[in-house]
Fold Aste57867_6325 protein.
Amino acid sequence: MYHNTDRMFHQHGFGHPLATVGADFHSHAVLFADHGIIEYVFCRQFASNMDMASYVALTRDHLCTILLVNHLQSRETPTITKSDSISQHQMISHHGDHVNLVCGEFWTADRCVLAIQQIHDDEAWAESREEYRNRTIWIDIHNVPNGIVVRILSLASQKNVTQGQVSVDDEALHWGLDLSDCPAAEKEARFRWHTVDFFNALLPQLNVRRVCADESS
């Protein structure tokens, strides 16, 4: 994952962080692939006056909140294991998702990359295979004058259960949308519109949180 960091950010429309300081960037998309697969793509870039070490520690200690696992509802993210560069976090979201994330930290002189992935096969937590989402996240932090630039790329699937991924109808209920009366040909478009609108409503509140974090740093 770490070695694909720059390629993945470029592939998803990010400019070079040091050439775009001060240019906040965000986008979110819902993609439909073959065989009923749904992927959520969340992109964000912003500047902060926090120092790098403080931001990395904040992200590590509140990983699921940073990643909006419970949307804007904060919830403790238990750290199961931790070393100098790797931490593991487990929780069950308020929608029943078993979240089992391993986070690797990769430090260089003026940069830190957090590479985060959902772990599926964990003998210590067999139930995590019952309800989960595929999650792959890169958080890229660069030192700049007066603070840092943060880039976040988050890829997540719809919910998976023991029998496989859930249908668009069941996934829509997770977002408070009932598609039972929607024509089949319109379901994907209506679901996409609803979820993108939901993320648009979240963004101002995310910005308020970021400003509060900056002011307290």
